[in-house]
Specification:
Number of strands: 11
Largest sheet: 6 strands, mixed
Radius of gyration: 19 Å
Strand order of the largest sheet: 7-8-10-9-6-11
Keywords: Repeat, Signal
Protein name: Gnk2-homologous domain-containing protein
Strand content: 15-25%
Shape: elongated
InterPro entries: GNK2, GNK2_sf
Structural class: alpha+beta
């Protein structure tokens, strides 16, 4: 009984919907790591971070919307990664990344590790190497306020669609792991979905990450017309209206300058599914420096 009440509480926290255009320009969420250390103003770490973010902002040829690089010597090495949504046009990708580099250092001052997500891109940096590692946390979810009328059938068609897209995205190469598609249920309603992993992951790691993400569907998404789960290594979104651009418009071309992973993920990282997020109200979440990074909200 207690668990049922908790699940109801988790699924009842709602915010007002916003349009896709606004969502692309608005930050979805950010997280400042409190356990990875801090740096002091005018320190070597800050200089290295500023150099790396500056080079990222001025890089007009980010390979296929993906960038990862390191700068500085131990113990002041900074590692950074940026990823744009696979259907994002180059100019929109660059604009999103520029905004991210400016905002994240303001939102997480003096933090050695931080994350920020927009609809069109993600940026993260840290004093530890995370390239090639599947990391599912911190994560957050969002969902549409409207319900479908045929929840059971809708959920099954959605699951089959996400499973198919997961396989396609995971099998992508080191340039891009991204897939979009749609499926129609018997009532002639169409479900559109998008899945993506950071390209530095292996096929198995990408698949594991997306399995973790879709595993959250039964918790709060049953019967919802749209939803998404976003984590550092992967994300997915679905809607009953098309929300993505032509997936072939920005298809990758071979590039010899694509960065390579610098480390392999620990064996224990694979396949881990974290517990359901704890509920948090966005209005109060922003004022808590130690707030739970797993945010429940709506589009």
């Amino acid at each position: 009984m207690a668990s049922s009440r908790l699940l109801f509480f988790l699924c009842s926290i709602l915010l007002h919907s916003v349009s896709l255009t606004i969502a692309q320009q608005t930050m979805l969420y950010h997280f400042c790591s409190n356990d990875k250390g801090i740096f002091t103003s005018n320190s070597t770490y800050q200089a290295n971070l500023n150099h790396l973010l500056s080079s990222l902002s001025s890089n007009t040829h980010i390979d296929n919307g993906f960038y990862n690089a390191s700068y500085g010597e131990t113990p002041d090495t900074v590692n950074a990664m940026a990823l744009c949504r696979g259907d994002t046009k180059p100019e929109s990708c660059q604009s999103c990344i520029n905004n991210s580099t400016q905002e994240l250092t303001k939102l997480c001052p003096n933090k050695k590790e931080a994350f920020i997500w927009y609809d069109a891109c993600m940026l993260r940096y840290s004093n530890r190497s995370f390239f090639g590692n599947m990391e599912f946390g911190p994560y957050f979810w969002m969902y549409n306020l409207e319900n479908v009328t045929n929840a059971n059938q809708f959920s099954q068609v959605l699951k089959d669609l996400l499973d198919d897209l997961q396989e396609k995205a995971a099998s992508g190469g080191s340039l891009r792991k991204f897939a979009t598609g749609n499926a129609t249920i018997q009532s002639s309603q169409t479900i559109y979905a998008l899945v993506q992993c950071t390209p530095d992951l292996s096929e198995k790691e990408c698949s594991n990450c997306l399995t973790n993400a879709s595993g959250l569907l039964p918790t709060c998404y049953d019967g919802r017309k749209g939803g998404r789960v976003v984590s550092p290594s992967c994300n997915f979104r679905y809607e009953t209206e098309r929300f993505y651009d032509d997936p072939t418009a920005n298809a990758p071309t071979p590039s010899p300058s694509q960065p390579s992973p610098t480390s392999q993920p620990p064996a224990s990282q694979e396949g881990l599914i974290p517990p359901p997020p704890q509920a948090a109200n966005t209005a109060t979440q922003k004022g808590k420096k130690n707030a739970n990074p797993e945010l429940l909200s709506s589009f």
